[in-house]
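Request:
You are asked to prepare a plain-text protein record giving the amino acid sequence and the backbone structure tokens, at your earliest convenience.
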Amino acid sequence: MAPNDSTETTGRTSRKLSRYVVPVAVAGVAAATIGLVPALAASGDPELPEITAQELVEKIAASDTQTLSGTFKVSTDLGLPSLAGFAQGLGGGSGSSSADPQDKLTELISGTHTLRVAADGPDRQKLTFLDGSEEYSLIHNGGDVWAYDSKSNEVLHEKADGAGKAPEEELPGTPKELADEVLKAAGDTTSITVGGTAKVAGRDAYQLVIKPKQSGSTVDSVKIAVDAKTGTPLKFTLASVQGGKPVLDAGFTKVDFGKPAASTFDFEVPKGAKVTEGLDGAEHGKSPEDLEKEFGGLEGLFGGKGAGAEGPNVIGEGWTSIATFDTGAAAPKTDEAPAEFQGFLDALGDKVTGKFGSGTVFKTKLVNALMTDDGKVYVGAVTQQALVDAADAAK
């Protein structure tokens, strides 16, 4: 695979419990579904044979890590206000079970979290959150997937092949697969180089550095620390042009590529635990319709017809692509939103004007969205000015 290969990447959305258990210890990586940044400072730059970017990309593609165990640290800084009140405004969690991984993985959107991970091929994985004294674990062992929340003593159980597919076909990608997707998307708008070496979790690694050639993107760089021996990505970096803390900072603090003991993946339902069996489809978590109802008045912020009912158009290319759609209705003022969202929206929004008229830019360190007062929406991993320029050009 050449560094400049360009392919369209698509994400998969699923509420099946088994789809939240990640093959090679990557639940933290999956939550983001987006770049990851070094969690540890380098403890010395090892001397390694020289390697080209092309050779390093091929090394990642050729890696086939099936077994590992270790500790993974994830820190996220999207520049958002606290999400606590926002989540409560949505009505809390899924309502089905406190063990629902959909709710737990949402916590990775902000703050710093430590996870213990283990994997033995496509049929056995385990992920445990180490935040605080309580235990939360996701376990895939053969035909069974378990989620356990010790705080509420609740268990969620599902058959791994409940959707009629092999587990590995349903699950989010491994760090290698995530790295592959970034590399596949790299075209003529992207610079890919080798940025030296590093020590990650005690292992020698090369640093692959991916940067936009275009101006106007919110992405400063993506860095992938690649194990020099196995080709396995150990850290995956996303930094914003705003500087400061990385948007996402994650990586192994300890890692062992040996086969974990079979007992690692055993699970016995604790005494007195409430067990929920086989939630799927609309029963598991909230359907899009449920979320739309819970947003209530927020629907109007995106136009009464529902944002992007006919799908967005994409303008531009590469790192400065912008998705745009017309809601078909004038956007109401943000102070018309439900009270529980008002502070959140105020903290995110900047009023802007241009040839297009006026509107509000809702901003994070990575993705920004311009909502014009006449109901048009422009969104992308681009700067506020790039969104205004796009709206002006559309007039």
